[in-house]
Write a structure and sequence with these properties.
It is a single chain. By secondary structure, the protein is of the alpha/beta class. It folds into 3 domains: about 10-230, Rossmann fold (3-Layer(aba) Sandwich); about 355-555, P-loop containing nucleotide triphosphate hydrolases (Rossmann fold); about 600-690, no CATH class. The strands form 5 sheets. The chain has an 8-stranded mixed beta sheet with strand order 6-7-8-3-9-10-12-11, with helices on both faces.
Length: about 700
């Protein structure tokens, strides 16, 4: 089908309302939603889970399933109402004119078909071109998305590619027919921050090259700042503020937008002196929305009789570029008033060393042919000579990309794996070679874990209270059932959950509430060390702030040592006392948070810092996009583990980086890097993140 020409907005959504129908009721998912996307423009759609972002995208694609229905308003694509297209016309528009990229790349790829064939199908079906021309076009887009050795990639199956490579293939597939509109639904949440930075750059460059308009759905405000021209903030099915990036980020005029920004750790936030401000209360369920303003019950500016009556309409903000807001009190609120300070906390007193690791190694032996298990063996060096100390009441953050060995070291510490070599000392006692089943109760209860996904860690058929009591039984806390029940209720108080939640099932809890239950269970036996493995990455930004502050509060009272595993350097900067950066099994940098976040850096730390999206227009960042994928731990490079991707390698003479693993160099007291660069070069490094002059 030939693409139709149109010089107005590519996408016009006007007063759109979408409902889902169940046997019991109609559930309004999107109400009175309007937005335009102009040719070549990128619109970011942000908001918490359940606010209706993806429903809007599915409405544009006319893919709402059997229960979903557009009950009001219109969606026009290039001036034509999408709901009036015939099934044949709609089929031609999807994929040819409008393409969608989903969060999980493997959901869009056929595991049994080679990449080349999947890409070639798009123009062959939509444009009727022959296989030879289609192959050339596939080769061109795979080169455009910066994949190495495009011919080998086209001949590969999806499972032979990394997550970042799979996502690039999905982007290439979406661009095969040069669509006019590209919808991206959280396309980088499953990717490492360095891969995310490369994919974001790629999407921006390709948008310019192909002149594609974009609808970018995300909960990450920093990512929207870096990729989009305009932003639309959604809350509970409605657009609450819309405007250019500059207007909304610098002149926000809706309490919810303001609350979102207060709950994310921007540079300058500090867990003691400038804590984050979590949004109070919970997101309303679609059939329990309040009268008047949906955000009313959680709003600092709520006035009874004003905000809780009638429909609240969008209002134009004078002087700004198409900037509108849905707030009754927009003219009365002083939007430039300083944020009311949250309660300032005293810095916890760091105590004695609780945990000490000395030259820890963890190697796995695997068959070279994993499919058949025969042939020679290969050694995977998951952890290489890890050495560090962690003290009472201290938060040590462990950062690095997937596959760097963060979780392997956590498993060895927990006793789920045993160390190959080296020593782990807990209060002076060696535990590295004792598996969990051989550890005594005191040791097991001393080292506990909070996992990334709260949905997977709770038993769906057991009440919340019973699951916490079960942990107390295992840790031998309490002499009888009634003592354990009382302790369970105290633990619910500690994680700020109502006591009646003891009788609820996990399915009746939100993600943030489930994570609180996981935290209560981890602290049930008086844990000395808590390993928090990406504990907030599956949660909304507003919930992240509350859960992060909860962990900090419990740490202050319980004097716990927190090992915080994360790839989100914004949260790491906010809550950690010291930071350990890992790459391919090695510790490449360790120091206090201030030392690690200011130059001199290890070249890998520098690249990590530059990759983090920051939701602040006043921040200037050095752009360092790492080329290539992380090497395999089964076949690591010779010499320095980072030398295959390092931009500073040419500053080291005689090919030393290729030949020798660097020594640990001390830059200042407590600050070490594993690097061959001379101290003179290291001290000449400039900051990655600067606050621009006003």
């Amino acid at each position: 089908m030939a693409k139709w020409d149109y010089d107005g907005p590519i996408l016009e959504i006007d007063k759109l309302s979408i409902s889902f129908f169940t046997r019991l009721r109609e559930i309004p998912a999107v109400m009175d939603f309007s937005a335009n996307v102009m040719p070549g423009e990128a619109l970011g759609l942000v908001g918490e889970s359940g606010c209706g972002k993806s429903t809007v995208a599915l409405g544009v694609m006319q893919d709402l399933g059997v229960n979903g229905q557009i009950v009001g308003g219109t969606i026009k694509f290039k001036g034509r109402d999408i709901s009036e297209l015939t099934p044949e016309e709609l089929r031609d528009v999807r994929g040819n004119e409008i393409a969608m990229i989903y969060q999980e790349p493997m959901a869009s790829l056929n595991p049994a078909m080679r990449i080349g064939k999947q890409l070639m199908e798009v123009p062959m079906i939509h444009e009727g071109i022959d296989a030879k021309v289609a192959y050339q076009r596939a080769l061109e887009v795979v080169t455009d998305v910066k994949l190495p050795d495009p011919e080998r990639i086209l001949n590969s199956f999806p499972h032979q590619l990394s997550g970042g490579q799979q996502q690039r293939i999905v982007i290439a597939m979406a661009l095969m027919s040069k669509p006019s509109l590209l919808i991206l639904d959280e396309p980088t949440t499953a990717l490492d921050v360095t891969v995310e930075a490369a994919v974001v750059d790629l999407v921006k460059d390709l948008g310019k090259k192909y002149g594609t308009s974009m609808l970018f759905i995300s909960h990450n405000l920093g990512l929207v700042l870096e990729t989009c021209d305009r932003i639309c903030v959604m809350y509970s099915g409605e657009a609450v503020e819309r405007g250019s990036i500059d207007d909304v980020f610098n002149q926000m005029q809706h309490p919810y937008t303001q609350a979102l920004f207060r709950s994310i750790p921007l540079p300058g936030a500090d867990k003691n002196s400038r804590p984050l401000v979590a949004i109070p209360g919970n997101f309303p369920l679609p059939h329990e929305r309040p009268p008047g303003c949906n955000f009313g019950p959680r709003c600092d500016y709520f006035v009874e009789g004003v905000c809780d009556t009638g429909n609240v309409m969008m209002e134009q903000i004078s002087g700004d570029d198409r900037h509108v807001s849905r707030c009754r009190r927009i003219k009365e609120i002083d939007w430039h008033a300083p944020i009311a300070a949250a309660i300032r906390q005293e810095k916890a007193e760091i105590g004695e060393v609780v945990l000490k690791m000395k030259d820890l190694k963890k190697y796995y032996e695997v068959a070279a042919s994993a499919l058949f298990g025969g042939g020679s063996k290969k050694v995977v060096k998951a952890n290489e000579t890890l050495s560090f100390e962690a003290r009472e009441s201290e938060t040590l953050a462990i950062v690095g990309e997937s596959g760097c060995g963060k979780s392997t070291f956590a498993k060895v510490l927990m006793g789920l794996e045993t160390a190959t070599d080296g020593e782990i000392l807990l209060d002076g006692n060696s535990i590295g070679d004792i598996p969990i089943e051989a550890r005594d109760t005191a040791t097991v209860s001393s080292v506990q874990m909070v996992f990334q996904n709260p949905f997977d860690t709770l038993n769906p058929s057991m009440t919340v209270g019973r699951q916490i009591i079960r942990a107390l039984e295992i840790f031998k806390v309490g002499a009888n059932e009634s003592e354990r029940r009382e302790r369970m209720l105290v633990l619910l108080d500690m994680v700020k959950l109502p006591r009646e939640f003891a009788d609820r099932m996990p399915r009746q809890l939100s993600g943030g509430q489930k994570q609180r239950v996981g935290i209560a269970r981890a602290f049930a036996g008086g844990a000395r060390i808590v390993v928090a493995d990406e504990p907030v990455s599956a949660l909304d930004v507003s919930v992240q702030a509350a859960v992060t502050d909860l962990l900090m509060e419990i740490q202050r009272t319980e004097k716990t040592t927190l090992l915080f595993i994360s790839h989100d350097l914004s949260i790491v900067r906010y809550l950690s006392d010291r930071v350990m950066v890992m790459y391919l099994g090695h510790v490449v940098e360790i120091g206090t948070t201030d030392q690690v976040f200011s130059p001199p850096y290890h070249p890998y730390t520098e690249a990590l810092l530059s990759a983090v999206p920051i939701a602040d227009t006043k921040i200037e960042k050095k752009r360092i996009v790492l080329e290539g994928e992380i090497p395999s731990a089964m076949n690591p490079p010779s010499g320095c583990p980072f030398q295959t991707r390092c931009g500073w390698k040419d500053q080291v003479p005689d090919g030393l980086c290729d030949r020798e693993v660097p020594p640990m160099v001390t830059l200042a007291e407590g600050h070490q890097v594993k690097c061959h660069l001379s101290l003179e070069i290291l001290h000449r490094m400039e900051p990655v993140i600067k606050i621009a002059a006003e």
